[in-house]
Amino acid sequence: MVARLSTIRRKIKNGDKLGFSERARAVSKGLLPSKVKKKKNAKK
Length: 44
Hints:
Elements: H1 5-14, H2 20-28, H3 35-43
């Protein structure tokens, strides 16, 4: 089951822990930064 964006936004706002699929969806929708981007920037 795919998490609703409203649920993901509420969890982010409240600081609740996100599940794997919720985190992946939040990153794909631009709600959370990608860890891959952080690693690339840290090497520079």
